[in-house]
C-alpha cells in the first residue's frame, strides 16, 4: 500500500503526540503545523516574494534568513543521518539537498542489500513509492505547458470509457480532482484488486462499481483515482504513462537512472532492495513491491542525484539548463492548497492541505512548503520537502519499511534552516505517526478462539466458485483435508482457511495492504460468503455462489 499519513499525523500532533501513506502518508502536512510553536526566523537576508514586493499583502514572507542558514544545516547532516541509522538500524539511505540551483549535498549511507553488503551511494536507485505522485504532477504540468490539457480537463474528455458510479461525477471529475483525491472514491480504492493481480485497465473499469462520498468536499487518498487522471493525460499524448514521463521529465532533466517502469528498477545493478523487520531484525523483504499498475501514484524509481535535478527544476519554476520544461503557471496550482486533508485540533493549530500530488503547508515560521512522503510496507520510506522562501529542498530515500526516519531527518534539517536549532522531537513524533502502519488488521486480532466452537459443515458444503462484481471470482477448494480460498483473475492469491466457529473460517493475509498478524474472517451463509478483508473500498465483501 502506498500510504497517506496526513490525517493521522494531524490528529496525532494536534493532541500533542499521539499516517493509506501518507503517503502517506506526511511531512509538513499537519504534523509540523500543529506541533510547532509560532516563532519568527532569525534576521538576515530577505525572504520576500515577488508578489509581496508588487503589493500583495498575502504574499509577505517570514523574516529573512542568514546567508549561511542552509550551509550550516547541511554541515549537520552527516551526524544527523548517522544517528538515525544507528538508532533505528535501517539498512540504507541516501540524502540530497538543493540550494541556489545546485546540489550542495548528496550522499549514501549504509547498505543497499543486507544479503550482499553492497553500499549505498548517491546514484543508488530506490523505489520512491508515493513521492511518485509529485513527479507525476510535474509530468502533467509539461502537458499543460504545451496546451494539451489543463488541471480542469474532465478525465472523460481524453478517456471516454472512464466512469464512476455517479453520472454527474463521471462527466465532471477533472484531472485536478483526482490528483487532489477529492473525487469521492474511498480511501485506497483499487489497491487490493492490484494485490490480487488485476491489471490497471481492469481496476479502473471497476471503480465505477463503488459508492462515492460527496464530490469535491471529501478527501480520501486514492492511488487508482490519481492513476486514472494520469492515464487520461497519457491517452491525450498518444503514449503510455511511463514513456510520457521519460520524454517530458526524466530525459529533459537528465534523470538517466529514473523510470516509471518496475522492470527498469529491477534491472539496475545499483538498486536498493527493500527490507522489513522480522523478530526485531531487518531482513530482505520476501515480497518486493511491483507497482506498475499504479505507476503514476507509486511506480517511480530514482536516485537522490537524479531527484536533486528534479527538485532544482521545481525551485526554478520549471526551468532547467536554459529550457522551460514546464511553466510556473502549470505547476503552481499543484503545490498550493486545493483541499483540506484534516481539521486542526484547535483554533491555535493549523489544518492540513493537499494540492495536486503535493502536500501544501505553512510552517510555524510562516514559510510555505510543499512535500510528499512515500511508504511501501515491503521496504521503502521516502520523503522530500521544498521551502521556496529559503530556496532549499531536501530528499531522503530509505530501503526499509516506513518508520518515519526520512520524514524526521528532513524536518530536523528544516528546523536548522529556519531556526538554527531543532525545535521539535521529530523522531518521536513521526515514530508515533508511523506506528499505526505496522499494526495488524481484522476484528479477530487479539481475540482467543472459542473454547467450544460449533462444528463446521462438511467441506463439500463450502466448496465452489463465488463471485463479486467488484472483487471477481473467489474459489473455495479442498486441499489436504482443509479448505483454501483463491482470489484474483487466475486464483494466484491463495490462503488456507482455518475453522473458527460454525460457518466462520479465517485466513491470515500478508501483503502490502495487510501487516503480519492480520486476520480475516470468512463467513458462509447459504449461497453467500463474506470476506472481512474485502469489506473495503466502499464494498461489502459479499460473494455469491455460482
Automatic annotation (TrEMBL):
<dbReference type="InterPro" id="IPR012338">
    <property type="entry name" value="Beta-lactam/transpept-like"/>
</dbReference>
<feature type="domain" description="Peptidase S12 Pab87-related C-terminal">
    <location>
        <begin position="450"/>
        <end position="513"/>
    </location>
</feature>
<dbReference type="InterPro" id="IPR021860">
    <property type="entry name" value="Peptidase_S12_Pab87-rel_C"/>
</dbReference>
<protein>
    <submittedName>
        <fullName>CubicO group peptidase, beta-lactamase class C family</fullName>
    </submittedName>
</protein>
<dbReference type="Pfam" id="PF00144">
    <property type="entry name" value="Beta-lactamase"/>
</dbReference>
<dbReference type="Pfam" id="PF11954">
    <property type="entry name" value="DUF3471"/>
</dbReference>
<dbReference type="InterPro" id="IPR001466">
    <property type="entry name" value="Beta-lactam-related"/>
</dbReference>
<dbReference type="InterPro" id="IPR050491">
    <property type="entry name" value="AmpC-like"/>
</dbReference>
<feature type="domain" description="Beta-lactamase-related">
    <location>
        <begin position="78"/>
        <end position="410"/>
    </location>
</feature>
Amino acid at each position: 500500500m502506498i500510504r497517506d499519513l496526513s490525517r493521522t499525523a494531524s490528529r496525532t500532533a494536534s493532541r500533542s503526540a499521539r499516517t493509506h501513506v501518507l503517503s502517506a502518508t506526511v511531512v509538513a502536512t499537519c504534523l509540523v503545523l500543529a506541533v510547532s510553536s509560532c516563532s519568527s526566523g532569525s534576521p538576515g537576508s530577505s525572504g520576500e516574494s515577488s508578489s509581496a514586493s508588487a503589493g500583495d499583502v498575502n504574499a509577505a514572507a517570514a523574516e529573512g534568513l542568514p546567508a549561511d542558514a542552509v550551509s550550516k544545516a547541511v554541515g549537520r547532516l552527516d551526524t544527523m543521518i548517522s544517528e538515525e541509522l544507528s538508532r533505528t538500524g535501517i539498512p540504507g539511505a541516501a540524502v540530497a539537498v538543493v540550494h541556489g540551483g545546485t546540489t550542495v549535498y548528496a550522499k549514501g549511507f549504509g547498505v543497499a542489500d543486507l544479503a550482499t553488503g553492497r553500499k549505498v551511494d548517491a546514484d543508488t536507485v530506490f523505489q520512491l513509492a508515493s513521492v511518485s505522485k509529485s513527479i507525476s504532477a510535474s509530468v502533467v504540468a509539461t502537458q499543460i505547458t504545451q496546451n494539451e490539457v489543463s488541471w480542469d480537463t474532465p478525465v472523460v474528455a481524453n478517456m471516454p470509457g472512464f466512469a464512476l458510479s455517479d453520472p454527474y461525477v463521471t462527466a465532471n471529475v477533472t484531472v485536478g480532482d483526482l490528483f487532489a483525491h477529492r473525487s469521492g472514491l474511498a480511501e485506497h480504492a483499487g489497491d487490493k484488486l492490484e494485490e490480487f493481480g488485476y491489471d490497471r485497465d481492469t481496476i479502473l473499469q471497476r471503480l465505477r462499481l463503488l459508492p462515492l462520498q460527496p464530490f469535491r468536499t471529501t478527501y480520501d487518498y486514492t492511488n487508482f483515482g490519481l492513476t486514472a487522471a494520469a492515464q487520461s493525460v497519457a491517452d491525450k499524448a498518444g503514449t503510455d504513462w511511463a514513456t510520457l514521463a521519460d520524454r517530458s521529465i526524466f530525459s529533459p532533466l537528465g534523470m538517466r537512472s529514473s523510470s516509471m517502469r518496475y522492470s527498469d528498477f529491477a534491472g539496475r545493478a545499483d538498486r536498493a532492495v527493500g527490507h522489513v523487520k522480522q523478530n526485531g531484525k531487518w531482513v530482505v523483504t520476501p515480497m518486493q513491491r511491483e507497482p506498475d499498475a499504479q505507476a503514476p501514484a507509486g511506480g517511480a524509481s530514482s536516485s537522490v542525484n537524479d531527484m536533486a535535478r528534479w527538485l532544482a527544476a521545481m525551485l526554478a519554476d520549471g526551468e532547467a539548463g536554459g529550457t522551460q520544461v514546464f511553466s510556473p503557471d502549470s505547476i503552481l496550482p499543484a503545490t498550493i492548497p486545493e483541499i483540506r486533508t484534516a481539521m486542526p485540533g484547535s483554533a491555535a493549530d493549523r489544518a492540513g492541505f493537499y494540492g495536486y500530488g503535493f502536500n501544501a503547508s505553512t510552517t510555524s515560521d510562516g514559510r510555505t512548503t510543499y512535500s510528499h512522503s512515500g511508504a511501501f510496507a515491503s521496504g521503502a520510506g521516502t520523503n522530500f520537502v521544498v521551502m521556496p522562501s529559503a530556496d532549499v529542498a531536501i530528499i531522503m530515500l530509505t530501503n526499509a519499511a516506513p518508520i518515519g526516519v526520512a520524514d524526521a531527518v528532513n524536518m530536523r534539517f528544516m528546523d536548522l534552516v529556519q531556526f538554527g536549532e531543532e525545535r521539535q522531537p521529530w523522531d518521536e513524533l513521526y515514530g508515533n505517526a508511523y506506528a499505526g502502519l505496522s499494526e495488524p488488521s481484522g476484528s479477530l486480532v487479539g481475540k482467543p478462539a472459542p473454547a467450544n466452537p460449533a462444528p463446521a459443515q462438511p467441506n463439500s458444503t463450502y466448496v465452489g466458485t463465488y463471485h463479486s462484481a467488484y472483487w471477481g471470482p473467489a474459489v473455495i477448494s479442498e486441499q489436504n483435508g482443509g479448505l483454501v480460498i483463491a482470489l484474483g483473475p487466475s486464483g494466484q492469491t491463495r490462503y488456507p482457511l482455518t475453522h473458527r466457529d460454525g460457518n466462520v473460517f479465517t485466513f491470515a493475509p500478508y501483503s502490502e495492504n495487510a501487516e503480519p498478524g492480520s486476520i480475516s474472517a470468512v463467513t458462509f451463509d447459504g449461497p453467500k460468503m463474506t470476506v472481512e478483508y474485502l469489506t473495503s473500498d466502499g464494498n461489502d465483501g459479499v460473494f455469491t455462489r455460482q
